[in-house]
């Protein structure tokens, strides 16, 4: 079965909102995320899969998850 | 002191004017004294949706420029208990009025009315700035489409930046049959992505087109959209009415899907 159009709509919308909210080029979000990861990883022992950023209308949240064993 | 609410959206054609008209009528039927103001200078529409286009003598710009007294420009809608319209000017442009002048006008009006509803033009330019200048809360109208939601997000950001903290979403023209098939974003999808409080949901309903053709209200009439608009009005008055879960109620769903199939054949 083909992908329902709602999934495509949501992905496109989420991407648009992030670039609108920080008013940057689409690829800048990935670069920002990469730079923030590099900065955080200097201080915190972290793996890429534990790291994410969330951009809202007023904040940029840096999130990391998982216990370090 | 009345409450000043701007009805806005960013994108055009999502139902701001229809929403303003029906919330205005709905609140007046709930015994509130209401004024609806068309702030779209040059593209006057609210009078037509209300069916009052033949009664305009003076308009918003006449009031601002002092060509008439405020009371002379207000059109009383005799069909409803206490509903008044301040129409826009059809032949002037958006620079005829400044945000400061709108603020003053709105602060005068809120002395006399329980609700001042401002129908905002599309876009984010001066017309938008004028419409939001005197408002203390907003209703952001969107439809479940990528472009409309994108604009709604931008608008909410601009409203927050200008100090309007209470911004609530009204999702218009929801097609339950399409949501069920996975071809339209659901109420949850939209509210989750926008992260904003939900004021109400208006399902797509051909009765809205029919009523608008006739210059008649939708709210309070025996139609799906009419009932939903009435709930929106009651929520504005502080009643806690849950948003209808369109995805779960089977009786309603059957009715809805019948209605929508009819739509598709047209």
Q: If you had to describe this structure to a student in words, what would you say it looks like?
A:
- The complex is a heterodimer of chains A (69) and B (266).
- Chain A has 69 residues and is of the alpha+beta class.
- Helices cover 52% and strands 14% of the residues of chain A.
- Chain A is built from two helices and two strands; from the N terminus they run ααββ.
- Chain B has 266 residues and is an alpha/beta fold.
- Chain B has helices spanning 16-29, 46-50, 60-65, 70-73, 99-109, 126-133, 146-161, 176-181, 187-194, 206-214, 224-236, 250-265, and strands spanning 3-8, 34-38, 75-76, 83-86, 115-119, 137-142, 166-174, 197-203.
- In chain B, helix 1 (16-29) packs across helix 11 (224-236).
- The longest helix of chain B is centred in the middle third of the chain and has 16 residues, at 146-161.
- Chains A and B meet through helix 1 of A and helix 7 of B.
Give me some keywords for this one.
heterodimer; A: 69 residues; alpha+beta; two-stranded antiparallel sheet; 52% helix; 14% strand; B: 266 residues; alpha/beta; 8-stranded mixed beta sheet; 12 helices; 44% helix; 17% strand
Low-confidence stretches of chain A: none
- End-to-end Cα distance of chain A, whole Å, is 41 Å
Series of H and E elements of chain A: HHEE
Counting DSSP E segments of at least 2 residues, the number of strands of chain B comes to: 8
Name the shape of chain B in a single word.
Answer: globular
What would you report as the Rg of chain A, rounded to the nearest angstrom? Answer: 15 Å
Percentage beta strand of chain B: 15-25%
Number of helices of chain A: 2
Largest interface, counted by CB within 8 Å of the partner chain's CB: A-B, 16 and 19 residues
Mean pLDDT of chain B: 93
């Amino acid at each position: 079965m083909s992908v329902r159009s709602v999934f495509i709509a949501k992905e496109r919308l989420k991407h648009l909102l992030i670039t609108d909210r920080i008013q940057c080029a689409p690829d800048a979000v990935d670069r920002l995320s990469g730079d923030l990861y590099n900065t955080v990883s200097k201080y915190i022992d972290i793996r890429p899969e534990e790291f994410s950023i969330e951009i809202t209308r007023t904040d940029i949240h840096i999130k990391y998850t998982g216990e370090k064993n | 002191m009345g409450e000043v609410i701007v009805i806005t959206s960013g994108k055009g054609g999502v139902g701001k004017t229809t929403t303003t008209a029906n919330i205005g009528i709905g609140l007046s039927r709930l015994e509130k004294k209401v004024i609806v103001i068309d702030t779209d200078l040059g593209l006057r529409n609210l009078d037509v949706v209300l069916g009052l286009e033949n009664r305009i003598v003076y308009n918003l710009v006449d009031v601002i420029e002092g060509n008439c007294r405020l009371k002379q420009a207000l059109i009383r809608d005799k069909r409803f208990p206490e509903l008044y319209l301040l129409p826009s000017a059809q032949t002037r442009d958006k620079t005829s009025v400044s945000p400061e002048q709108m603020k003053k006008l709105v602060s005068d009006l809120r002395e006399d009315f329980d609700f001042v509803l401002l129908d905002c033009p599309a876009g984010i330019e001066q017309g938008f700035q004028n419409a939001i200048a005197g408002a203390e809360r907003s209703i952001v109208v969107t439809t479940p489409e990528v472009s409309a939601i994108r604009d709604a997000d931008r608008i909410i950001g601009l409203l927050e930046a200008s100090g309007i903290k209470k911004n609530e979403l009204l999702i218009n023209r929801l097609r339950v049959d399409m949501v069920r098939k996975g071809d339209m974003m659901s109420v949850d999808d939209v509210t989750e992505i926008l992260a904003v409080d939900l004021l109400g949901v208006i399902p797509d309903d051909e009765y809205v087109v029919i009523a608008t053709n006739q210059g008649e209200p939708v709210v309070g009439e025996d139609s799906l959209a009419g009932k939903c608009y009435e709930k929106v009005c009651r929520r504005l008055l502080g009643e806690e009415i849950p948003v209808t879960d369109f995805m779960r109620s089977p009786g309603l769903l059957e009715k809805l899907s019948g209605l929508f199939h009819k739509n598709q054949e047209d």
